[in-house]
Amino acid sequence: MRGSLGSGVADAIIINGDYLEVVEVKLRRAYDIRPHLVQVAFYCLLAEEILRKRCRKVHLCYPEGCVSRPMSLSLRESVFGLVEAAEKGIEELRKAKPKKYCQYCKYKRLCPFAHGESKNN
Ligand code: SF4
């Protein structure tokens, strides 16, 4: 899915009349499930935008069982806060010039900033 917030791949989307529910499957349960909740909530917002239906529930499914949460206002705000923080970080990276240490970075093959090749340069 690609939307105005970004893109991602949901494991499953349940369309229930006018509403959506999004399912994310994880192979290992984390001690703190909050990052997984924000991830599935992000997919929920993308699905809302693309399918034009309200997302009302998210499900995280671990080998031990599923955890379901309503798509609350605070979950929505968490996603928007993270997207905003990521956009600020990307803006900062765009301003940065490739540094000497980029040559040692394991992400340099993927990083558009490693060689001063960002799209906005
Ligand atoms: S290659 Fe990209 S991610 Fe790695 S240090 Fe350089 S700017 Fe940062």
From TrEMBL:
Residues 8-112 form the PD-(D/E)XK endonuclease-like domain. It comes from the Archaea. Coiled coil: none annotated. Its cofactor is Mn(2+). Pfam families: PDDEXK_1. This is PD-(D/E)XK endonuclease-like domain-containing protein.
